[in-house]
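Training component of the fellowship. As part of building independent skills, the fellow (R.M.) carried out the full modelling exercise for a liganded target. The chosen ligand was NG1. The inputs are recorded below so that the supervisory panel can assess the work.
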Amino acid sequence: MVYTVPTVSELSNIYSLGVDVQTQRYARLTSAFCHIYGNKPDFVARAPGRVNIIGEHIDYCGFPVFPMAIALDTLIAVRANGIDRIHLANVNNEKYPARKFSTSGDIFKIDPTVHEWSNYFKCGYRSLLEHLGRRKGMGFDALLDGAVPAGGGLSSSAAFVCATQLAVQRVNGIDLPQTELALVATGAERYVGVNSGGMDQTASIMGCRGSALFIEFNPVLKATTVKLPKTDPALAFIIANTLVVSDKAVTAPVCYNLRVFETRIGALILAKHLGISNRPACRDVDPLTFKIVMDEYFSKKSCCDGGGGDDSKADSVEIWINRLGVMLEKVQEAFGTHSEGYTREEMVLALDMTPEELSDVVHEDQFLVHADRFKLFQRAQHAFSEAMRVVQFRQICESDNTDTDYFQVLGDLMNQSQNSCRNLFECSCTELDELCYIARQAGAFGSRLTGAGWGGCTVHLVPANKIDNVKNVLLREYYSKRFPELSATQLASTVFATVPGSGACYYV
Ligand code: NG1
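Fellow's submitted model of the complex:
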């Protein structure tokens, strides 16, 4: 079954809670649009942010992740204008001033060195038109209202890019399947120099009210809805923002892109260690990921060569868990002697490449990185163990064993994930650790950073009847000490409970 982006005409079909507040917001957006452009919009393109429950920094390793869409979203009110111009405005026009582009010229020029809000719009526009093989689209007037906090780990950038692509495709009379749109959106942020994975864009486009998503990227993009187990009290999630802004595009060379680089080089060295780097499946792909290395190692051919294992039930959880377990041993063998990290010279030596070949293979010209040492061992340990936790998390959610203490087992996996992010992947920070510590003391069963980390948000698994208690303790122990100036309204959008929300749609 091929699904495209749905069109809805009732806000209650999008939002589970706060429909009145949303009704007022959409009315404000429409009236601001009329004020700026002198006409009502034809439609509103809507794409949500997401919270990742578990599976951090492994989408770009090809491993599955487990996010859910949230109610916070980006709206773009749109009206076709019949001329070759795009007029882009933002309801927050002081911070994000209006821009104008021609539909075939400057909109395709994106300077990643300039930190400019409309770059994300250009990324969405350009990647979609290039995908369609066009150099020019139809003109339109647009007004954006973004409710996902920027740099907060809830994927404001993906919500912006996805909403833009929705707007562009509808104005141009196109209706791509959701998976195709998610794949195109995934490539979009590369124009601003971020070597992005595909979790956020997929969760935003394919999110499903009431369910989390188990998203697989390899061999093909696939999102399976997973209902969270029914418990009494119910499972609930709280999001708490550290208010430390972490801008991926700005810190990419030392944070996000560096981790992508380390896992890519890790995959190359691991394939070499396993003696499979010259197989077409490893040699002829770009990028080579840990998932591809694992699959190739366990492919039928490897079994005949004395590696791998039975490939016949590749989908089953036991197979996943077995394979990931074996790979963790291989990671120890391949990288264990370099626990202090590799220098560039050591990586070049391990891969039997020239420094230029190494740079080429990971496209360093496009995605700059800066580091003296590259901790491939720790990054690989995180990637394989995190993938294992994601598979286990889904398995537990889908089990109907009435004896399972869901809070304890799911919470433990989230806590292990946080430890791994902090100690092995080094993408946490003091404030993220502190929020997790406080929430666990206050009754959260699982607490972890969500999204890229280095700031941004945390997510906490709590019994529904303890939401207020955990929130109050966070307010008292973290926010009132570090941010005493925040108003009640600001705090309400900083610490809040969330449920799985619906994915991207058009509102007409
Ligand atoms: P954030 O920075 O939270 O939007 C980023 C990536 C994801 C994923 C996570 C880490 C983009 C748009 N998003 O999320 O793909 O890799 O980090 O799990 O690059």
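The panel noted the following from the submitted structure. The longest strand covers residues 66-80. The mean pLDDT is 94.
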